[in-house]
Design goal:
Elements (H helix, E strand, L loop, with lengths): L1 E5 L2 H7 L6 H16 L4 E4 L2 H7 L4 H11 L9 H12 L8 H12 L4 E3 L9 H13 L6 E3 L9
Parallel strand pairs: 1-2, 1-3, 3-4
Helix pairs in contact: 1-4, 5-6
Amino acid sequence: MQKVYLETTIPSYLTSRPSRDIVIAGRQEVTREWWETRRDEFMLFVSPYVLDESAKGDPEIAKKRMQLLESIPVLAENEEVLTLAQVLIDGEIIPEKAAIDALHISIATYHKMNLLLTWNCAHIANATNIRRIERSMSARGFESPIICTPDELMEGE
């Protein structure tokens, strides 16, 4: 069974109010469909970063996110995770202002996740960045997870 790291956009899309933006609404629907039909095929994991981000914002929605995540194992942070994140920032792969994105990538990489599931296409699920992330992690002896969106995990859709 493949190990999947859920980046914060996944629980956010699962619990947020329906968006009027057609792109976001579509992503919400795909995420819900994946959650309902495919998630049991994977071992899911989150991090302290996901929990911290999920606890913020509208208290009612934050409570839903935290309830959704309560049974999912939390990966531990350590010095190597922080070092790998800094490598991504220092290499200008992830901007300093998006340091949390570097932490998501580094903790998933360090803990040998097979997949990193996200809707963050600005810094994480970005074709240009994916190759740079892979090269950077490989240069340090790590294999980065496959970075993908929920629609990429929908079989035959």
